[in-house]
Amino acid sequence: MPRRVLLMCAATLAAIALPAGVGATVYSLFDYQSATDALKAVDPTIDPPPNDARRDFVVGGFHGTDNNNVGFSGHTDQLGLDPQGKLSETIPLFYGTPPRSYQGRFRVTCLAVVGNQAALGLVPTDAASNDQPAQFILAVRDNKGLGIPDEYAFESDADVFAKDCVRYVTDASFSITSGNILVNDALP
């Protein structure tokens, strides 16, 4: 009888450990709620992605190093296709005389997720409050459990296209000053 119990315990532990060892992102309802709360603190008009661990998604809101406030939500279907989502960025008193705030409004057209890192390809919307005419990439890194802040980076220049977001997945290098980022890499 004890041997049977030990075998059952070993099988249970293997069933739990195996998915975590092959790259599954494990997050709790608290992690998801914290990231959606951070999104809503920046832009309450953006809907969070569905809380579905079987799909790749990213969500969060943060205050960045350039006094920028960013809120974003992006997800794909179960095959990793059909990226959807939005991003909002505001930088208070950023440019002009007298200084006025910069506002960028984007839709997600590309999403690449690898482990705890992701990149979102973004194209500007036609919103009246959009000061950004160019497309760009936001790379993010979810550092949950590592004891360091989550990270981000914006990639934009004449050679950066939203459709190429997969090339920028590992580029996040600036620590957020407050907020939260959640990256979910679904198992294939």
What does this protein structure show overall?
The structure is a single chain. The chain is of the alpha+beta class and 188 residues long. The chain has one domain. The protein is built from two helices and nine strands; from the N terminus they run ααβββββββββ. The chain has helices spanning 2-21, 29-42; strands spanning 57-63, 69-75, 84-95, 100-114, 117-124, 136-141, 151-155, 174-175, 178-184. The chain has a nine-stranded antiparallel β-sheet with strand order 8-7-6-5-4-3-2-1-9, covered by helices on one side.
Arithmetic mean pLDDT: 85
- Structural class of the helix and strand makeup? alpha+beta
Radius of gyration: 19 Å
Strand content bin: 35-45%
Low-confidence stretches: 3-24
Task: Give the SSE string.
Answer: HHEEEEEEEEE
What is the makeup of the main sheet?
9 strands, antiparallel
Helical proportion? Answer: 10-25%
Q: Describe the global form.
A: globular
Q: Oligomerization state of this entry?
A: single chain
Instruction: Kindly report the spatial arrangement of strands forming the biggest sheet.
Output: 8-7-6-5-4-3-2-1-9
